[in-house]
Design brief:
Layout lengths: L7 E8 L2 E10 L1 H16 L4 E12 L1 H16 L3 E5 L3 H9 L7 E3 L2 H6 L8
Parallel strand pairs: 2-3, 3-4, 4-5
Antiparallel strand pairs: 1-2
Helix pairs in contact: 1-2
Amino acid sequence: MCPEAFHFTQTFAVEGSIVIWQVNGFLQEARIAEMKQKLNEIIAQGITNIIFDFEGLIAVDSRGLGFLISVQKEVRQRNGRMVMVHMTAQFAALLELTKLNRIFEIFLDMETAKRSFGGEFLQ
């Protein structure tokens, strides 16, 4: 992989009681501690509904997948939801191959993902 493939950024936007967590670059083991810390900050604010926006995702390793599974478990334990949007074809194929597409809610566009939370979640 070229050096740009290892570039990683994440941004956050709060809309009502939903956090939109945009992930760009390579979601890999080296980023998991930083992402866990951000997850704890989000939950400490009382937000348990998360939309992961993967439009800029280049690749994900096994630890990245494990992190997403742990986020799903964490928010469900707090009666929240985690959904995914803007999946690349490669990431969608990986989720299908690993059968994780059966446990994750996946949407094609942001508006549909937001509406899936119902009107009470949007301000």
